[in-house]
Design brief:
By secondary structure, this protein is α/β, with parallel strands linked by helices. It has nine helices and 15 strands. Strand 9 and strand 10 form a beta hairpin. The radius of gyration is 20 Å and the shape is globular.
Length: 331
């Protein structure tokens, strides 16, 4: 198996794949820059033992012929890199956003339409036991009718590249951070999002221009429930972990809460108790993404999910920019 890597940002989960799951043979790897921050891509390349460096994406695709391509470019470039690879029938596993503009999303739709080309987005909550447990207990009806969902993503700011200051390169904090919480709401609840609004701003990092240090989204779900989600770069440097991910699903007969990588359930009949390990430990996000890209095994990842979620995220960003309600069902 041959895995290519473009860019040095994002997660690049496929770097954890060292052997071909089909026969156990070593994986061949190659890397190239994204044309914007090649120095960062070089750092990734040096962390991949035995990898080959190519001077451009075209050279990597032509001479290396990857079985799958991992994309982690400067965020707003992901969609352009992905479209090139998909047009050459190379499956893509990309960090979010897979589309930072409506133009990129339309290009991806056009390249994929009528084909079996695969585009998968690295939403790791779909492979985490805490969120899978929440999904399972919602499906079992333990919270009753869902009424209110709240979600949080909070990061330390640390050191960020200068291009974060430019929306045209960064894409926005909603697409980069809050996207995880936006994706997990329909994943856990099974409910479709119908309308969204939002807000955001930059209070503490004026030197980072159009980058939001906080952003919020409010969703209307198909059953009449509401979801309120927020993300920020305000987690103190002294906090024990880089991120603080939370989800609360409150219903007519119970409440599920995900926090600190654990899931707890409280119902009318039972006090709060940990239900995290009531579902089997999932395969790693790397293994699941690779399987979805190269096999027909059932998966929580799919091209349809990537395109639909990209559409939802752009609708949410538009709504937050305008501070207005937007119908996400309309094109």
């Amino acid at each position: 198996m041959r895995i290519g890597f473009v860019g040095g940002h994002g997660h690049h989960y496929l770097k954890a794949i060292e052997t071909d799951p089909r026969d156990g043979s070593p994986v061949a790897r190659a890397a190239c820059g994204d044309g914007r921050d090649d120095a960062r891509a070089t750092i990734l390349f040096k962390s991949l033992p035995g990898a080959i460096w190519f001077s451009s994406l075209d050279q990597l695709l032509t001479e290396f012929s990857p079985d799958v391509l991992s994309v982690g470019a400067v965020y707003a470039l992901n969609g352009d890199v992905t479209a090139v690879a998909l047009a050459r029938d190379v499956p893509v596993v990309s960090d979010k956003p897979v589309a930072a503009t409506w133009r990129q999303l339309e290009t991806l739709r056009r390249v994929i339409d009528g084909t079996d080309r695969r585009l998968l987005t690295e939403f790791d909550f779909r492979c985490r036991r805490d969120f899978l447990s929440a999904r399972e207990w919602v499906a079992r009806g333990q919270v009753g009718q869902i009424v209110l969902v709240t979600g949080q993503k909070s990061y330390r700011f640390g050191s960020r590249p200068a291009w974060y200051a430019d929306r045209a390169s960064y894409g926005g904090t909603l697409l980069w951070i809050l996207s995880h919480a936006i994706d997990v709401v329909p994943f856990v609840t099974g409910l479709r999002v119908t309308h969204v609004t939002g807000a955001g701003g930059n209070v503490t990092r004026p030197d980072y221009g159009t980058m939001e240090d906080h952003v919020t989204v409010t969703m209307r779900l198909e059953n009449g429930a509401t979801a309120v989600l927020h993300a920020d770069f305000l987690r103190p440097a002294s906090a024990p972990t880089h991120g603080d991910d939370r989800l609360r699903v409150a219903g007519s007969s119970g409440v599920l809460e995900v926090r600190d990588e654990r899931c707890t359930l409280t119902t009318s009949a039972l006090a709060s108790h940990d239900v995290t390990e009531t579902v089997p430990a999932p395969a790693s996000v790397a293994d699941q993404l690779l399987a979805a890209a190269t096999t027909d095994a059932p998966s929580v990842y799919s091209t349809r999910h990537s395109l639909d979620t990209a559409h939802l995220l752009l609708k949410c960003r538009d709504a937050a920019d305008a501070r207005a309600w937007v119908d996400v069902r309309a094109d």
